[in-house]
Amino acid sequence: MKGQKIPSLLCLLSICATTWEKETVTGLFAKDVILPCPFPPGDDEVIYWKKEDNDVHSYYDRRDYLESQHLNYRNRTHLFHEHIPHGNASLKLSNLTLTDEGLYLCYVGTQQTKTEVEVELHVQVSSCYALEYQKKDTERMLTCSAFLTYPAPNITWVMGNKTIQETHREETRDGILYSLRSHQGIITTSDPYSCHIPLPQGKWTAEWRMKDQLSKAKGSSIVIPCEFSSDTLHREGISVVWKRIRNSVTSVLATFNGTFTYLHYQVRINQRDFSLLLSDLTTSDSGEYLCNISTPHYTKLTVRTLEVEHSDNTWKTVTLLVLVLIGLVGDRTGSNRSLSQENRDHSKMQGDQEWYKHFDIPKNTRLHKHRHY
Fold it and tell me: Buried b / exposed e across 266-276, counting CB within 10 Å, b at 16+?
């Protein structure tokens, strides 16, 4: 404010002390963050927050002075006035942007002391990564996705031990943030596929693998394993999703994300190894079963095909019925054959009698197969 005299800090060397501190803080993009600035409580507090040569926030005479505040911070900063007398000059910075990253300096002066705190702010984008698997008819497709990332992600595909080119990709932008979907057709199910995305700290990796087919009888039960690395169980943020693909339709069966959720009455997940238990199988349970187990930096998707067959007892019953029917048909055919033979013999005997009578041949005369007249 023009004409406003900004108070200066006066202190006697015998009673004035200087405190230096350095902090590191990580905030999420588009969220709020607190930049800490503790100081020894004193009288007549003067507070300045700066980033490089830009004024971020000023406070003295028990009120805010924001006339010289840089435009990038307008309506985005807040001091907790009620906490200042207790030695807290922390600054809340709202709606973080990537340009907010950098080194901030907090200066606090009182009649007794002066304090300077350096705060290194890192802004982290809350990105999301996923591996999806789809099957339509005989075509199988993988999709490796990165949502709301900065800078633009670089996705690479590996089949077995060989780097391969993606089939195609889709890219969109939301302001400075990128979203990318990379598609890869599955050429052979005998090789594993993986996609890799480098991150500011480390990398994100996803792996897909097709396992051997399983066969079970109708009415029985089966346990389908979910494969993962040995250290996955000890990581935070683990999630599990079980799905089934049948006739190109994908259904979610069960999930785990801290708690278990079941979306089908006949399934259960083993709480130790996340294997899937299916009971009272029917032929409609045939299909491909997908276990997707994920941590913040790793995803593994395992696919197994289940074929539900008719039970042995059913086949035995069907076989027995067929044999019975064959027997009945055979008996009926034999009876008809015997009856026909009896009718033919009877007719032949009557004919012979007429033949004998017509030619006046004695009845006890032997007849030959070929008669000579």
Answer: ebbbeeeebbb
**SS3 state at 319:** helix
> For residue 45, what are its two tokens?
């507090």
The residues pairing with 288 across neighbouring beta strands, listed in sequence order, are: 245, 305
CA dist 55 and 118 (Å) reads 15
Distance between CA 151 and CA 97 in Å, rounded? 13
Task: Give SS3 for 346.
Answer: helix
Per residue in 173-215, pLDDT tens?
988 899 999 999 999 999 999 999 998 778 999 999 999 999 9
Q: Which domains does the chain have, with CATH numbers?
A: 17-124 (2.60.40.10), 126-210 (2.60.40.10), 214-310 (2.60.40.10)
Q: Are 96 and 33 in contact (CB under 8 A)?
A: yes
Distances from the Cα of 370 to the Cα of 64, 109, 230, 351, angstroms: 138, 143, 94, 16
Segment 30-59 shows an average pLDDT of 96
Phi/psi for 182 (5° steps) reads -110, 125
5, 61 in Cβ contact below 8 A? no
Q: How confident is the model at residue 265 (pLDDT cuts 50, 70, 90)?
A: confident
- If pLDDT is split at 50, 70 and 90, which confidence band does 19 have? low
Which of 212, 290, 207 has the alpha carbon at shortest distance from 251? 290
User: Each residue of 80-90: pLDDT tens digit?
Assistant: 999 999 999 99
Beginning with the edge strand found earlier in the chain, give each strand of the sheet holding 113-124 in spatial order: 17-28, 113-124, 102-109, 46-51, 54-60, 63-64
